[in-house]
Amino acid sequence: MNSISNIWNHPKTSAAGLLIGIVTIAGALSQQGITLGKAGNGSVIGLICGIATALLGLLAKDPESAPSSSSSTVKLGAWALIALLLHLSFVVGCSGQSVAQNIVNWTPTLQNAVATVDSTAALLAPADAPIFAAATVGFDAASNLLVAQAKAYLSNPSASVLAQLQTQVVVLQQQVNASLLQVARISNPNSQQHALVAVQAVGTIVSAILALVQSISGKVAVAQMAAQSTIKLATVRPYLNEGNAAEIVAAHYGEPVELARVQVTLAEDNAIVAGF
Predict the structure, then answer these.
(1) pTM (2 decimals)?
(2) I need a surface site. Which of 48, 150, 159, 161 has the fewest CB within 10 A?
(3) What range does the domain containing 201 cover?
């Protein structure tokens, strides 16, 4: 009776909790390759995810014109944050086509970040520049190939092209992780700081693309990708600055840094759980 009474007395909170549960379950099923069939260009699971997220976003809007209590405002803000968080493909991709476009949307930022890496050596101490150059020597070729494959997948979202994209994103992710470990050994504090910031910028974008690729990949494919990831995220995480990563994500999606920080943390946690 208490449960029924709580639902009756707090219908908005109960509805929000139900929708959060639906989106969470839908996202988990999608990551395991369970689609429940096709729905237009996407899947039934993707459709359920999108509708539930939209309803949660509407529920977060306070229709009352009169000022509400501070606790109500906090609760509504929390629902809005959750709605935005679950909606963004950085964490959960609900539509294969939209995820493919999202991957391509990240590629100009990736190219700019790699260009910044190329120019960073000039900011380092003379003794540190060769170390940095050697640690990042493969970024240009690997990033260009990833960009080309992302565009190819958007044009032709076939299993064979996706397999190439899966392989290449892990290749670049591993290069970034190896680079982080190498530049972290630079003893000059100023050089090390410049080097880590430049490499992490590339890593943040690669992590975003990896999360997107992961969201449209089956369980077996994700396991194969994780097996190819020999330098794990947990190993390099101590050298990452989540504040810097959040700023990159916030700028890309045009969202508050606070929200982006949550996204970055959840994406990293999800990658570690998946074996990356």
Answers:
(1) 0.70
(2) 159
(3) 96-274
Which of 42, 61, 87 finishes a domain?
87
Own/partner long-range contacts of 71-76 (Cβ < 8 Å, ≥24 apart): 75/13
- Same domain membership, residue 136 and residue 258: yes
Residue 39 has pLDDT above 90, yes or no: no
Note the pLDDT tens digit of each residue in 56-75: 555 544 444 444 444 444 44
Which burial class, exposed, middle or buried, applies to 162 when counting CB atoms under 10 A from its CB (0-12, 13-18, 19+)?
buried
